[in-house]
Amino acid sequence: MKMPILSYGHSLLRQMCADVQPDHPGLERFINDLWETMQHANGCGLAAPQAGKALRIFVADSLSTFNSLDGRSREYYFHPGDGGIKETFINARIIRRFGRSWGDEEGCLSIPGIAETVQRPWSVTIAYLDRQLSPRRQTFHGMTARIIQHEYDHVDGILFLDHLDALTRKILAGKLKKIVKGQVKTKYRMIFP
Question: Is 166 exposed, middle or buried (0-12, 13-18, 19+ CB in 10 A)?
């Protein structure tokens, strides 16, 4: 089921999310709904708080990005041997961020119409439960690591805007007010504060 996405300004987007218990009711259905909602909105990731639940769950899809790029762009955005992922992350904890810092444009389904350059480390090691609730610990790089870090921020109540300098945030203030007021058009349903 396609769920509405909470917009910038909604208080839930600023909450630290709770760990998910293995017997959480409707967990499998909610994960399916996250994937369906993200794909419908043409996103590359979506976190539970964006869908109205303060849970430490997010989905990340760098495979679609990889498949859409030409060879040269793949070399720039992806680590050698990395063909992208489609993965569910439950109760994730970042163990380590490392490698060169690199800037790339990020947007967010909760903040439509705004994209800005964000600096993030090239690599991240993360421990999490996958969709089958099996424990994993993996290191990801490049675009995959960027998507994971962006979505991980969401379950900690952080938005990509928080990584921008004060001047850029001030310049964006008018656009952000329009989002809060619901004065944006998207092809997906949104809930405004």
Answer: exposed
Report how far residue 3's alpha carbon sits from residue 37's, in angstroms, rounded to the nearest whole number: 6
Domain membership flag for residue 193: no
Q: Annotated active-site positions, please?
A: 151
Tokens, residue 8: 């910038």
> Whole-model pTM?
0.97
Instruction: Write down the residue that tokens 């060169």 correspond to.
Output: 100
Calpha distance 114→186 (Å, rounded) = 12
Domain that includes residue 114, residue range: 5-186
Number of domains in the chain: 1
- What is the distance of C-alpha 26 from the center of its chain? 22
Q: What is the pLDDT of residues 30-61, one digit of tens each?
A: 999 999 999 999 999 999 999 999 999 999 99
Tell me if 144 sits within 8 A of 60, measured CB to CB. Answer: yes
Q: Are 126 and 140 in contact (CB under 8 A)?
A: yes
Residue 169 lies in a domain: yes
Residue 191 maps to a domain: no
Inside any domain, residue 130: yes
Q: Which tokens in the block code for residue 153?
A: 């921020």
Q: Report the alpha-carbon distance of residue 49 to residue 53 in Å, rounded.
A: 5
CATH of the domain at 57: 3.90.45.10
